[in-house]
Specification:
about 40% helix, alpha/beta, about 325 residues, 7-stranded parallel β-sheet
Length: about 325
């Protein structure tokens, strides 16, 4: 159980805190009374994502700028660091692997380098990804499952975990990694749900699904993801990685049907599959989250409730 008082009056840095997941975390931390410094290059994030004004300082900066990261961390002297700043696109990593590696692995190195010698630092929580597993050798996926990424993004996220582990074992930096499975919800800037909603807005008669549609995923509502990160900050074992998932695996075709139904289009809209997807699109992910649950975490948002909230947010954004 996470108590609000555990973060009250603590200095916290959130990199990528103006983005999708990071902004929700910042809102919760500020609501708990934390003193939050947000670092974001605003490539995909935006300051308007942050609903709180009290207790938040915003710095436009890039974690690939080592000197700037060093200065900020020295000035703030944080007790907690949540590191979300990254390229979060698998197709984007295929198109520009150099940028992907520099942003993810290089940026993470700069963050952990800046954490060396911070005497009050309690935990660095790193946003990793299910992409480190690639096509998993076993199901359900456990943290001990062989790591064999099939995209530059997955490789750069695995490299980020190696940066974390090295800094923990050599320099004593207290880091823990969250391997996130398909987060979704308000403020998302990409990913399959948003893609489907946009497509239906353009053409409500046909919904195109990449690949066969038989790809299986587990979706994590953003508020559950935030709860998981807070549990890792307080209870996570340093040098360890934890699967973060909302459970309830489903195919992409099933997801498409749910969104069509939610739009009231089940009688008129047909689904077409492309037969081919993008490089790095794994076929089946089902997850074991017992390691995270042992810290007291429980996913509270099922897909129907989370999808309804996501659609309501999408509609409000489209009406602006």
């Amino acid at each position: 159980m996470i108590e609000e008082s555990q973060f009250a009056n603590t200095n916290v840095i959130v990199t990528g805190g103006a983005g999708f997941i990071g902004s929700h975390l910042v809102d919760v931390l500020a609501g708990h009374g934390a003193i939050v410094t947000v670092i974001d290059n605003l490539q995909s994030g935006k300051w308007s994502n942050l609903s709180h004004e009290i207790g938040i300082s915003c710095i436009t900066a890039d974690v690939t700028d080592r000197d700037q990261v060093d200065r900020i961390f020295k000035d703030i002297d944080p007790e907690y660091v949540f590191h979300f700043a990254a390229n979060a696109s698998v197709p984007g990593s295929v198109e520009n692997p150099d940028y992907d590696f520099d942003a993810n692995a290089g940026g993470s190195y700069n963050v952990f380098r800046a954490c060396r010698g911070l005497t009050g630092l309690k935990k660095v929580v790193v946003a990793s990804s299910a992409a480190v597993y690639g096509e998993p050798a076993e199901l359900p996926i456990r943290e001990t499952t062989t790591l064999r990424p099939i995209s530059p993004y997955g490789f750069s996220k695995l490299s980020t975990e190696h940066v974390m582990n090295c800094h923990h074992s050599v320099y004593g930096v207290p880091g823990v990694a969250a391997r996130i499975f398909n987060a979704y919800g308000p403020r998302m800037a990409r990913f399959v749900m948003l893609d489907f909603l946009r497509k239906l807005g353009s053409n409500p008669d046909v919904l195109s699904v990449l690949g066969s549609g038989q790809q299986v995923r587990e979706f994590t509502y953003v508020r559950d993801a935030v709860s998981a990160f807070l549990h890792l900050a307080v209870y996570g074992e340093c040098g360890q990685a934890y699967n973060v998932s909302g459970g309830a695996p489903m195919s992409i075709l099933d997801l498409a049907s749910r969104i069509i139904d939610a739009r009231g289009l089940s009688a008129t809209c047909r689904i077409e599959t492309t037969g081919a997807s993008w490089i790095g699109d794994a076929q089946r992910w089902t997850t074991d989250t017992s390691k995270l649950q042992s810290l007291g975490f429980t996913a509270e948002w099922d897909i129907n409730r989370g999808l309804a909230e996501t659609i309501a947010w999408f509609d409000s954004e489209e009406s602006r």
